[in-house]
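thread: overnight batch results

M.L. [08:02]
morning all. the overnight job finished for the chain we discussed friday. pasting input first so we're all looking at the same thing
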Amino acid sequence: GILIAYFSNYLVALNHLGALDWRWKFGIPALPAALFLILLVHILQSPRWLVKRGRTDEARRGLQLVGAEDAERELQEIIGSMKEEQPQDRLFSWKYRFPIFLAVSLAVFNQFSGINAILYYLNDIFAHAGFSGISGDLQAVAIGATNLIFTLIAMSVIDRLGRKTLLLVGSVGTALCLAGVSLVFFTAQHQGALLWLLVGFIAFFA
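M.L. [08:03]
and the structure it wrote out:
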């Protein structure tokens, strides 16, 4: 989705719409968003949620629709697990405090890395570094493609290398790349390296 959005922006920029440029870039994503909203009407409820409310037949049909090999067995496992569930087993109970702390901390530091600022303001970053609007849009496409490719690579190796290894490598890589980006803006030199530093940042982040 990010890659398609950047490519869409590039196509809009090629038409040199002037003051209307940003409006088209902002408005076009309303189309897939509207389609997504329409499709959400038909999305299935979670089988576990349905079982919890006594709607067992609907849960069975949902499991069958998503291609469960043995829907009845999976349904019985859900029912059994809910019977065995103890009140103290809830997610925010005290015994789960450390894993929840780690999960929340990872999410927080993901945002503190600046990923959203870079993805949302990529064109402005390139513009401030001296690139033209169309050139910035095209380089944003390269960033989106990198994000997609390295996300797929990470998904394919995560079970072999482990999450911790990928997280450590990614953290060191993103820190070094961001330091390089800071240096480019601080010295106002080597703007040509900016694209490669941002590509590196996105690759390590993904």
